Amino acid sequence: MSKAKTSPTIPASEEATFITAALTAEADAVRRVAARVATEDAAAWTSALDLLEACTGHVVVSGMGKSGLVGAKISATFSSLGQPSSVLHPAEAVHGDLGRVRRGDVVVLLSFSGETEEVVDLALILRTDGVPCLGISNHAGSSLAQRSTVHLCLGDITEACPLNLAPTASTTAQLAVGDALALALARRRDFGETDFKKAHPGGLLGVGLRNITDAIRFRADDTLPVLPDTLPVRAALERARVTAGGHRRAGAIMLVDDGGRLSGIFTDGDLRRLVLDAPDGLDRPIAAVMTARPKHLTVHDLVRDAERLVREHRVDEIPVVDEAGRPIGLVDVQDLIAMKVVKE
């Protein structure tokens, strides 16, 4: 094994310039592909999406080397957006794994040069078997293009590697193309938040897509007092104590107008400030000291909307109202912390 080469210390400014150039090269590769879609290849992209939309089985993604690794991510994106997908190694395909491809599947084949032997051979086998293939390479005249049902051309791409050898900008372009196809397919199929939630029941994504009513622990007139905003503070506090009934109470009182609609919130923090600033404040109308028109959510909002309110407005208690604006409960920031949606 050869020893690693050592080199003189490179100034930080030179390294920053090199890294910037590498990132720019990869971004430029994606921009060039996007420009081709807008000016030359719109029809090919439409054909590619027609092929994918007609898929009644799996979108099977296959590529060799770095393209294969990119293909695994593209496959995961398809699955994430509601299209079942799997990965097929092109070399293993001819040794039994071809049985993974079933009627109704569409195979996406990745080879930047379009001449990767294993991928081109697989394309020929699939075409013989009548399996529709979407090829993605850098040239419309490539062997892969000639053997594919539909072909997308990436065009000439200069790698970010100074030697123009290591797959870098080209694989970034492949990945972006795969993501764009998956997103466009999901858009055609009207894939929405409810569908996304079904595919992502776990993790922060899944929790964030839960309905906000799932996070309500303090419910109106149970452990959450909902009182007229015409009461004096002292009377409101006394009635709130009765509502709690010895159970853990919410750290706030919901106030409503004469139509039962949320008009304000009075928190433990509001009470402390009132007592310190105005000792006789307990006899004042609660409407004069409450937080009027508080930030709130509706029964149609999601847990992620609560996280956004906490992050953007630093609120600790979030009222939840029904379609008529009547309070049904309260979400406490501690409950969001327990759900790991908000950090302490």
Q: Into which percentage range does the β-strand content fall?
A: 15-25%
Estimate the mean pLDDT confidence: 91
The outline comes out as elongated
Number of helices: 14
Instruction: State the helical fraction.
Output: 40-55%
Q: Main β-sheet, in a few words? A: 5 strands, parallel
Radius of gyration using CA atoms only: 30 Å
Query: Would you identify the regions where 5 or more consecutive residues have pLDDT less than 50?
Result: none
Annotated CATH architecture of the largest domain:
3-Layer(aba) Sandwich
Q: Gap between N and C termini, in Å? A: 50 Å
Helix and strand composition category = alpha/beta
Description:
Helices cover 44% and strands 15% of the residues. With 344 residues, the chain is α/β, with parallel strands linked by helices. The chain folds into two domains: 18-191, Glucose-6-phosphate isomerase like protein, domain 1 (Rossmann fold, 3-Layer(aba) Sandwich), CATH 3.40.50.10490; 212-338, CBS-domain (Roll). α1 (12-39) crosses α7 (169-188), α2 (42-53) packs across α7 and α3 runs parallel beside α7. The chain is elongated, with a radius of gyration of 30 Å.
Could you give a short description of this structure?
This protein has helices at 12-39, 42-53, 66-80, 90-93, 117-128, 143-147, 169-188, 193-199, 203-208, 233-244, 268-277, 286-289, 303-313, 333-338, and strands at residues 59-63, 85-87, 106-110, 133-137, 150-153, 218-219, 226-228, 252-256, 262-267, 291-292, 297-298, 317-321, 327-332. The chain is an alpha/beta fold and 344 residues long. The mean pLDDT is 91.
